[in-house]
Amino acid sequence: MSGRVLGVVLAGGRARRMGGRDKALLPLGGRPLVAHVVARLRPQVDALILNANGDPARFAAFGLEVVADPVAGHAGPLAGILAALKWARRHAPDVDWVASAATDTPFLPLDLVARLLAAVQREGTTLACAASGGRTHPVFGLWPTRLAAALERALVEEELRKIDRFTARYPLSVVSWPADPEDPFFNVNRPEDLAAAGRRLERGHGAPPA
Known about the structure:
Layout lengths: L4 E6 L16 E2 L2 E2 H9 L5 E5 L13 E3 L9 H15 L5 E6 L9 H12 L3 E6 L2 E10 L3 H9 L6 H5 L4 E6 L13 H13 L7
Parallel strand pairs: 1-4, 1-6, 4-5, 7-9
Antiparallel strand pairs: 2-3, 6-8, 7-8
Helix pairs in contact: 2-4
């Protein structure tokens, strides 16, 4: 299995705690929230796509392929991961891995993909996910494209929605990052989180690449 990786930014959530607004496009530091994630993830992968539902034209400025969930009914981040796995099998057959990241984490580590990939290769596991501060972050994962059919069955036939229930079926590497002084997996769920992220940018912590 090669080390070529497709990245996917998961922007398919409904953002209930942000009043149902399109979280990915909320302004942070003068640009959309998702732009910070794209800037940090793009250099780490061989190709990058965006998972989002609705009109893809709203993301045209990013120049990324926008792939909708292949499972109806807002099936959660697993549906976005499945979208990326299926897209890779169809459009990038030389890619063996998909690295997933959430659209609301503007400070994600710049070594995320390298460390996840090194862990599965070193430990001989099937999957990898990130952790910090004693908590796992399964949305930040590394997924072999060969799991596309198994994940689709779990979503459609079993109506499985929890990521950790799916990953528990396979050998999993958990890679930890320090959460002090700033957690790289800080996520924007509420208006006060967006304000806190703005203050963090002003302090220069985790500022995305130019």
